[in-house]
Automatic annotation (TrEMBL):
Domain of life: Bacteria
Membrane-traversing stretches: 25-43, 49-70, 82-105, 111-131, 218-242, 248-272, 284-302, 308-331, 343-366, 372-391
Official protein name in the record: MFS transporter
Keywords: Membrane, Transmembrane, Transmembrane helix
C-alpha cells in the first residue's frame, strides 16, 4: 500500500471520522457558492454589479466581525449546541435576501439581509478542532489531517463558484443561493450529530488569555491578512485580464486551475513527513509562494496569453496549500487551551480581511494601470508576509498544550 494511501486510510479508520467529514464537506461547499450566487442574483434582477459587489462586501465585513464571537460560543458551549442554531439563523438571512430580491424591496434591505448571514460557523475550523482532539499525541497524523482539510478548502472553493454559476444560469437567479442554504443546513446537521468525535468543552479559567494575545499569534494573524490579499488580488486581476482579451467566461476555469494545483499539492504534502518544526518550515513555504507568484506576472507581461497564464497559475498554486497547512498548524500550537475554534476563526477572519483589501488593491491597479501590472499586487503581498515572518523572534515561544499534538 503506498504511504500516501495508508496515511489517509488511517485517518478515516477512526470511528465517526467519515461521517463528520461527509457533513463537513457538504456544509463547506456552499462557502464557495454564496458570493457568486449573490452577485448573479442581485446583478441579474437589479442590473447593477456595483450594488451586488457592495452587498457581498458588506456580508464579508459582517462575517469578519461576528465569526470570532460565534467561535467563542462554540468553544464555551460545544459544537452541537451552538453551530446548528447559528447556521439556522444565517439561513434565515439568506432566505430574507432571496425574498427581498424577488419582491423588489429597497436596496438597503439587501445589505441588512446579507449581513444577517454572518452567523454561519467556520465549519473548517470545527473540523480541524475535531482532528486535533482525536489525534492528540500524533503530530504526523495531525499534519495529514490538516493537509486534507486544506485540500478540501481548495476543492470547495474551486467547485462552488462553478456550481453556483451553473445553477443560476440554467435554472433561475435564486437557485444558487437556495441550493447552497440547503446543503449548508443538511451538512451542518450531519456534522453536529456526530457527538462521539466532538471535542469536549473544557472549563474556562480566568487566566486564559484571548487567542489574539497569545505569543506569536499577532504575527500569524498579520501573515494571514497578507496571504488573504494574495488571494483577493489574484481573483480580481485574473478576471480583468481575461475580460481584456474577450474571454471573460474563461476566468473561472483559469482560477480553478490555481485552486486545483493547490489542492493536489495539499494532498501530496499530507502524504509526506516534513522535516523540522513548523516554525522552521513556515518561512520556506512563504518564500516558495512569493517566488512562484512571479510566474503569473511574467506570463502576463511577456506573453499576454491566457493559456500561458493558466499554466503559470496552476504551478503557482502549488505553494499555497503547504503554506496554509503550516500556518494552521502554528495557529493550533499557539491558541490557548479550550479556545481552538476561536483561534482558527481569527485566522480565517484575517484571510477574509486580506481578501477584501487585495480585491480592492488589485482592482485599482487593473483599472488605473493594467491587468498585467495587477499581478504585481499578489507578489507584493506574499513578499510582505515573508518579511513579517522573518522579523526577529516574531513568533515568540509556542504555547504548547494538547492542541499542538506534541510537546518538547
Amino acid at each position: 500500500m503506498p504511504p500516501s494511501t495508508s496515511r489517509y486510510r488511517h485517518l478515516f479508520a477512526i470511528p465517526g471520522a467519515r461521517a463528520f467529514t461527509a457533513g463537513n464537506l457538504m456544509a463547506r461547499l456552499p462557502m464557495g457558492m454564496f458570493s457568486v450566487s449573490a452577485v448573479v442574483m442581485i446583478a441579474g434582477t437589479r442590473d447593477s454589479y456595483a450594488l451586488a459587489g457592495a452587498v457581498v462586501a458588506t456580508g464579508l465585513a459582517a462575517t469578519a466581525l461576528v465569526a470570532p464571537w460565534t467561535a467563542r460560543l462554540i468553544d464555551r458551549y460545544g459544537q452541537a449546541r451552538i453551530a446548528l442554531p447559528a447556521t439556522l439563523a444565517a439561513v434565515l438571512g439568506g432566505l430574507a435576501l432571496v425574498l427581498c430580491v424577488r419582491t423588489g424591496a429597497p436596496d438597503w434591505t439587501l445589505f441588512a439581509a446579507y449581513a444577517a448571514t454572518a452567523t454561519t460557523p467556520n465549519i473548517g475550523g470545527m473540523a480541524r478542532a475535531r482532528w486535533a482532539h482525536l489525534l492528540k499525541g500524533d503530530p504526523g497524523a495531525l499534519h495529514t489531517a490538516n493537509s486534507f482539510e486544506q485540500a478540501a478548502d481548495e476543492l470547495c472553493f474551486m467547485l462552488g463558484p462553478v456550481l453556483a454559476a451553473l445553477l443560476c444560469g440554467t435554472l433561475f437567479p435564486e437557485a444558487g443561493t437556495l441550493t447552497g442554504m440547503l446543503l449548508l443546513v443538511a451538512g451542518m446537521a450531519l456534522f453536529t450529530a456526530q457527538r462521539s468525535t466532538e471535542p469536549p468543552v473544557r472549563p474556562r479559567t480566568t487566566a486564559t488569555q484571548p487567542p489574539y494575545r497569545a505569543p506569536g499569534m499577532p504575527a500569524l494573524l498579520a501573515v494571514c491578512l497578507a496571504m488573504g490579499a494574495v488571494f483577493g488580488a489574484m481573483e480580481v486581476v485574473t478576471i480583468a485580464f481575461a475580460d481584456d482579451r474577450g474571454h471573460s467566461t474563461a476566468a473561472g476555469v483559469v482560477l480553478a486551475l490555481q485552486a486545483g494545483g493547490s489542492c493536489a499539492a495539499g494532498l501530496l504534502y499530507g502524504a509526506l513527513t516534513p522535516g523540522g518544526s513548523a516554525e522552521r518550515r513556515y518561512p520556506w513555504c512563504l518564500a516558495a509562494m512569493a517566488v512562484l507568484l512571479t510566474l503569473p506576472l511574467l506570463a502576463a507581461s511577456l506573453t499576454g496569453s491566457l493559456l500561458v497564464l493558466a499554466g503559470a497559475l496552476l504551478v503557482s498554486g502549488m505553494a499555497t496549500a503547504p503554506t496554509m497547512i503550516t500556518n494552521m498548524t502554528l495557529v493550533q500550537q499557539r491558541t490557548p487551551e479550550g479556545r481552538l475554534n476561536e483561534g482558527m476563526t481569527l485566522a480565517v477572519t484575517g484571510l477574509l480581511g486580506g481578501i477584501a483589501l487585495g480585491s480592492a488593491a488589485g482592482g485599482w491597479v487593473a483599472e488605473h494601470a493594467s491587468a498585467t501590472a495587477g499581478y504585481a499586487v499578489p507578489v507584493t503581498a506574499a513578499g510582505t508576509a515573508l518579511l513579517i515572518t522573518n522579523a526577529r523572534n516574531v513568533f515568540g515561544r509556542p504555547n504548547l498544550h494538547p492542541n499542538s499534538g506534541h510537546s518538547h
